[in-house]
Recover the amino acids of this structure.
């Protein structure tokens, strides 16, 4: 399972990229707004900066509600950087836009996916990757990870090539669960990436090795 970083914060992307464990970036309008990116020009500049930092796919979301607008935005985004994935929501207009963009050869990240049926529709329309939102389903009292498992299992059974990207990841537990479920990618906030590193036995092990090394007269 590949790991992407779910942020529009340049420092977090730089820090994540330095670890060598991140192979892509996902952004959305909320994440962009959190970084003060308030218009299309700023979003484009930010996405181009991300592309200079990290050599991998960068997901950029459209904000139009109608298919025509989504397609126009998607085509524009596709020109911004070498490796764009255009994020299109799982709506009626979204499926129409996915079909058009996929025919253009543009890679679509089908976002805001909350059901197997939405994932099936997107796969038929031509989504390159589908993003089930785990945390937001957990928030409403459903097991979000069940959806990831379900999509992976049905796509395998049906030999559907659309990849599954576990999104709305909130904890390091979500990361290991997504890997066990067979997700191709999980996109994680920087703080969850750091949680994945943590184990108390690693920290105490490092301390003990250093202490023993010192006791033997080494410096
Ligand atoms: C990623 O593509 C999504 O935009 C993101 O994971 C949403 O996460 P959230 O539900 O924590 O906002």
């Amino acid at each position: 399972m590949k790991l992407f970083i779910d942020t529009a914060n340049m420092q977090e992307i730089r820090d994540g990229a330095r670890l060598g464990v991140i192979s892509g970036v996902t952004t959305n309008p909320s994440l962009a707004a959190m970084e003060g990116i308030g218009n299309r020009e700023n979003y484009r500049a930010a996405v181009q900066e991300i592309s200079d930092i990290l050599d991998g796919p960068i997901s950029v979301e459209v904000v139009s509600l109608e298919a025509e607008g989504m397609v126009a935005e998607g085509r524009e985004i596709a020109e911004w950087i070498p490796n764009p994935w255009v994020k299109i929501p799982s709506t009626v207009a979204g499926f129409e836009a996915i079909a058009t963009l996929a025919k253009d050869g543009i890679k679509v990240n089908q976002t805001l996916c909350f059901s197997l049926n939405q994932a099936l529709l997107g796969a038929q329309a031509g989504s390159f990757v589908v993003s089930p939102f785990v945390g937001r389903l957990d928030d409403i009292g459903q097991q979000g990870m069940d959806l990831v498992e379900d999509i992976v299992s049905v796509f395998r059974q049906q030999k559907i090539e659309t990849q599954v990207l576990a999104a709305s990841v909130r904890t390091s537990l979500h990361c290991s669960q997504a890997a066990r479920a067979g997700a191709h990618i999980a996109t994680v906030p920087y703080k969850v990436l750091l949680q994945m590193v943590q184990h108390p036995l690693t920290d105490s092990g490092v301390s003990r090795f250093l202490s023993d090394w010192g006791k033997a007269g080494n410096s």
